[in-house]
Amino acid sequence: MNDNWRDRVAAIWSHADSLADGDVVNAIDELVAERDADDAEALFEAAGARDYAGREAEAEPLYRRALESGLDATRRPQAVIQLASTLRNLGRIDESIAMLERQLHEHPDDEWTGPSAAFLALALASRGDSTQAVSVALMALADYLPIYSRSIRSYAAELVAD
After folding, report:
1. Residue 114: what are its φ and ψ, rounded to 5°?
2. Is the model's pTM score more than 0.85?
3. Count of C-beta atoms within a 10 Å radius of residue 38
4. Residue 69 near residue 38, CB atoms below 8 Å
5. 56-68 and 76-89 are packed helices; what angle lies between their axes, rounded to 10 degrees?
6. What is the mean pLDDT of the chain?
7. How far apart are CA 8 and CA 28, in angstroms?
8. Any idea where the domains of the chain sit in the sequence?
9. Which residues of 90-122 are buried (b: 16+ CB within 10 A; e: fewer)?
10. How far is the C-alpha of 24 from the C-alpha of 126, rounded, in Å?
11. Burial group, residue 151, by CB count within 10 angstroms (0-12, 13-18, 19+)
12. Are 85 and 124 spatial neighbours (Cβ–Cβ below 8 Å)?
C-alpha cells in the first residue's frame, strides 16, 4: 500500500504546476485522509502542499508534527529544510538559521548539504547578513566546481574572517 500511496502522491506533484494551488492541497489532502492522523509521511505531504500553496502558517505545525511523529531518514532532512524555509517566510529568521545550521552539522557532506546551505544563505540574506550568506553559498558551490574549489573555499572563508 505504501508504494501505491507514494506513487499517487508523486503523480500529484508531477503535474502540480498545471493545477491551482488549492487543487494541489485538496488532492494531497484526499490521500492524507487515507492514512492515520499521526502518520509522519502524510503530515509531511500535507505540510508541503500548504507550503506550495503559500499557506506557510498552516504548513508550519504540520511540518513540526511530521518531524515529531518520526519522519523517516529519507524525508527528515527535506522536512527540516522546508520548515526552515517556511519559518523564514513567516519572519522567524533566527529560528530558520538555527535549524539549517543544525542540519548542516548533521549532514556536512551528503546530498542535503547543498540544499541546506542554499536555504541558509537565503535566511542569512533575509537577516541582512549578506556577506555571510555569500560565504555559505560559495562554500556549497565549491563542491560542484571542476576547478578552483580550493580557491573559492579560501575566498569564501576570507569573507567572514575577523
Report:
1. -60, -50
2. yes
3. 12
4. yes
5. 150
6. 95
7. 9
8. 1-72, 95-162
9. eebbeebbebbbebbeebeeeebbebbbbbbbb
10. 28
11. exposed
12. no
Cell of 102: 543544525
SS3 state of residue 156: helix
Q: For domain 1-72, is the CATH number 1.25.40?
A: yes
The phi, psi pair for 69, rounded to 5°, reads -85, 5
Task: Give the model's confidence band at 117: pLDDT under 50 very low, under 70 low, under 90 confident, else very high.
Answer: very high
**Is 2 a residue whose pLDDT tops 70?**
no
pLDDT of residue 1: 54
The C-alpha cell of 36 is what? Answer: 492515520
**Given CA atoms 41, 49, 100, 143 in this order, what sign does their dihedral have?**
positive
Kindly indicate the confidence band of residue 3, based on its pLDDT and cuts at 50, 70 and 90. Answer: confident
Element (H, E) at 129: none
Cell of 86: 517556511
- Which of the 8 DSSP states describes residue 75? T
Q: What residue has cell string 522536512?
A: 79
Residue whose grid cell is 549532514: 107
